[in-house]
Amino acid sequence: MTCDLTNPIFTNEAAAVAHLEASRWNQGVICPLCGSDKAKKMGGATQAGMFLCADCRGKFTVRTGTVFERSHIPLHKWLLATHLMASSKKGISAHQLHRMLGITYKSAWFMAHRIREAMAPAAGGTVGGGGRIVEVDETEIAPSRKSKTPLGGRKRANNKKFVSLVERDGKVRSAVIDGRNMNDVRTAVRMNLDPDSVLHSDGAQFYKGFMPIGKHESVDHDKMFAKRASGNKASIHCNTAEGYFSIVKRGIVGTFHHVSPAHLPRYLNEFDFRMNTRTKLGFNDITRAAAILKGAEGQRLTYRQVG
C-alpha cells in the first residue's frame, strides 16, 4: 500500500499537527518535560498547538522532545520528507528533497539526517536468537575514480568499512568498523548478535572460535558460494548479506554519490530501517512512515552535532 501524496497532512499544517499529535499521544497527552498526564491545550492564535503542563508549568508542543524540535520548517513538510525517505528503497538525496519541499539544500540535508536519527535501532537490541540463522559479512564502499574524499577515494585503504548481521528472512543490523583492526568486527558482532543464534560466515579467520561449537558454520568463498548442510539444516551461505550490500551500495553510489565517513552510521541506520520494515515483514509505506514518527520521540540531533 502506498501513501496518497494529496493527503492533507502533506499540504496543510493544522492537519499535520493533528496527525502527529494523534500518533504520539493516542492514549492522552503526556508532558515531555516531566512525564505528567495533566496537560491541556492552550488557546489563542499566538499559542496555537501549545500545551501547558499543570504539574511542571512548562509549555510544549508536539515537536518538543523529538527530532522535529526547534525546526522552523512546517510540520507538513517534515511528514512529506518522512514519507519520501520511508518509501524510497535506495534513498532520496538532499537535493531531491530540496526541490520537492521548496526548502534550501542545507535545510534538506540537515532534515534528512534528523529523520535518519529517528530510524536508528533501539539501544541494546540484537538480531537472531532461538537458533535462528544470522549471516555475517563485512564490506566497503568501492573506490571512485573521480573522488578524492576519504570515503570512495582513490586509495582503497581510506574507504570506510562496515559489517552487517542479517537474520535470514528477518532483520538486519549494521555497524561501522575500523578496517585496520578486525577485532572491531568481533566486537560489533558480539554487541549486536543474540548468543543463541546460529552464525553463518565466510572463511574469514576472525570468525573462527567466536561462537560455541555447533553455533557457527562457514563457507570458503575461494571454493564455493554456498554448501549444503548435513541433515535437515539450511544451506550454509552469506548470499542474503551480500544481496543486502548491493542495495546499500547502489543507494550510496547511485543516490547519494558521496557519503562522509562521519555520517556513514546514520546512512546505515536508514538502509537497515527500510530492510527491517520491508513488505515481507508486514510493512507498507504508511506503516513504515508511522514507525519513523514513533522513532522520532525522545531523539534530538542538533546542527552542531551533525555539521
CATH structural class of the domain at 133-259: Alpha Beta
The first-to-last residue Cα distance is 36 Å
Rounded Rg:
22 Å
Largest sheet: 5 strands, mixed
By DSSP (H or I, 4+ residues per run), the number of helices equals 9
CATH architecture title of the domain at 133-259:
2-Layer Sandwich
Biggest β-sheet: strands ordered side by side in the sheet: 6-5-4-7-8
Structural class: alpha+beta
**Tally of DSSP β-strands:** 10
* Approximate helicity band: 25-40%
Low-confidence stretches: 143-147
What value does the average pLDDT take? Answer: 88
- What's the overall geometry? elongated
Strand content: 5-15%
Kindly identify the CATH topology of the domain at 133-259. Nucleotidyltransferase, domain 5
SSE arrangement, N to C: HEEEHHHEEEHEEEEHHHH
